[in-house]
Write a structure and sequence with these properties.
23% strand, 8 helices, Glucose Oxidase, domain 1, 9-stranded mixed sheet, alpha/beta, RraA/RraA-like_sf
């Protein structure tokens, strides 16, 4: 897992999506609320509705490095706050992602733990329902299974199959390397038409032929 994390540090979620168009992308309504936006770790999943007891159980149960992923039904009820973020830091968790509400922004906004949520709201849920832990859930419109790899940065959150994550991250690094070369060309005064097969690509499409836009770099 450490090797995958190091590879993620060299890329970003945009390169991951460019490298694999099937990547699960969490809805952009689920936004970072903390000072740290880069998140990486295996999903520890939670399903609950209007009640945060299952989230509390997850924070106290998940292994270090895990990212708590909460299917809160996209409801505007806080399923976590300052105490949960502090406890997650104590236990070495990788982050908290809530498809629902989060609160206590006076602390969370400066928190080192990556925290993402759909809503910010002062109204908390109850603490009387067990909910479900470590089951397939839906978060931000995508299915997240226990152990799926959750990655996030300033661009958003994505979810990868852990068995494919290494290959996807390697492909994403190739994308970033190509991007760097294009940037060097642009910085040197080249245009996008110089950097890409734009004219050839457009002409082929106009003729009704299949074509792929590609960078003209070594």
């Amino acid at each position: 897992m450490n090797d995958l994390f190091e590879r993620f540090l060299a890329v970003d979620t945009t390169a991951i999506c460019d490298a694999d168009r099937t990547t699960r992308v969490v809805h952009s309504a689920i936004r970072p609320r903390s000072a740290t936006t880069r998140v990486f770790g295996p999903a520890f999943t939670v399903r609950c509705r209007e009640d945060f007891l299952a989230v509390l159980r997850a924070v106290e149960t998940a292994e270090a490095g895990a990212v708590i992923v909460v299917d809160g039904g996209a409801r505007e009820t806080a399923l976590g706050g300052e105490m949960f973020a502090r406890a997650a830091l104590v236990r070495g968790l990788g982050g908290i992602v809530v498809d629902g509400g989060y609160r206590d922004m006076s602390y969370v906004a400066g928190c080192e733990l990556p925290v993402y949520s759909r809503f910010v709201t002062p109204r908390a849920g109850t603490a009387s329902q067990l909910g479900e832990l470590q089951v397939p859930v839906t978060c931000g419109g995508v299915v997240v299974n226990p152990g799926d790899l959750v990655l996030g940065d300033d661009e958003g959150l994505v979810v990868l199959d852990p068995q494919r994550a290494g290959a996807v991250l390697d492909a994403a690094l190739a994308v970033k390397n190509t991007e760097h070369k294009v940037v060097e060309m642009l910085n040197g005064g080249s245009t996008l038409s110089d950097a890409f097969n734009l004219t050839e690509h457009v002409s082929a499409l106009q003729r009704g032929e299949q074509s792929v836009l590609r960078a003209l770099v070594d």
